[in-house]
Amino acid sequence: MREERDYLTVTEFTERIKELIEDTFYPQVSVRGEISSLDRSKRGHFYFVLKDKNAQLKCVLFLGKYRFFKDVLKEGKEVICTGTVDLYMPRGEYSLVVDYVEEVGWGALYKRFEELKRKLESEGLFDEKFKKSIPVLPKLVGIITSPEGAAIRDIKRIIRDSGCFIRIVIYPSHVQGKEAVREIVEGIRFFNEEFPVDVIVLTRGGGSVEDLWAFNEEEVARAIFASEVPVISAVGHERDWTIADFVADHRCATPTHAARFLVDRHQGLREALDRWRRYLTSYMENRLSHCVKDLEILKRRLELRDPKRCVAEASIRLDELADRMDRYTRAVIKESRRSLERLKGDLLKNHPALKVADFRRGLLTLKDRMLYAFHNRLSEKKGMLNAFSSKLEALSPRAVLSRGYAICYYNGKVLKDPNRVDVGDMVMVELAEGALECRVKRKRPLFRSC
Question: Does 138 score more than 70 pLDDT?
């Protein structure tokens, strides 16, 4: 038994380490590496791992400084973080409290991821036209995963609790590390060739980019694309995306989502069938109830109406209808005869010969009236013509000449003014019975009689 206290408690040892670390790296240190496992706490602080090929360092960036580096702080980026080293005593873990983040570039893994993604996308491995539809009711599901992982436990629990008849067959495989790629590819081949299933689920829980990298390998992607059985990819958490997610026929965010996706298809169909069963049952019961009621009504009607009585009533009804038809026929014939007589009388009144005689008499009357009017009009016009002729004759120059007057012309025009001619000019004098050519000997003033 120790008599003297020659040991340190865990707290004392941790405090000394804390002092050593903080004194050595005081005041600040800059570390270069690739961001991985980026996570945000409920209070808004960011926790991540800064790693390189051989080691990793936990880091924390508090909310107050995040707004300055939100475009730089992204999963997979290579950065230089500057800050102070702190040791968290309750867990004995040291971390870098980051004050400044400087971007270097994307990490090597993410460069490989983007290069492979672009290559496979250009070859059409991500095209929707090549994706196979998931069966509506998958009964046999092949699962490629680690048999000890939390993912398979969650899937088993959800399927068991749902009560759906879904059988699962597990192909044990590493989901990270060197052997993972070969075993995943072998599992896909196994469920296609040796043990055919309805659908294949490729799954594992969350992890860092390195942990999930087996699902970013080209061999796995091409095996998924070549699979004749539909493949569901359920790798990591909801924010994790792998090449397998892009190539798979359907992507589920987590293993739990994949299990619920399979269960919901069964439960959805089961609920639909239950609804249809209840609807058809209710419909048949209602139809049967109506048919029973109709049968009772017909039965009572048949009991109340004796066939002989029905025949007798029908015979009476037939006789009544025959009498009504006979009366109606006679009335129609009588009315038709009266109409025929009226039409015959109208036809005689409007006989064409009578109409022609009336038109002929009217035509003769119009002829006499027209001749009378014509003669009267002709006599009236003759009288007017004689009167106008007398007036015209009285006003004619020829009539004036017959009374001893004469008309003198010079150069073919009537001469009214003696000043228009000179002594010696020849003029034409027209008389009632002829004309004279005269020469002007002298001009005298106008002689007027008293």
Answer: yes
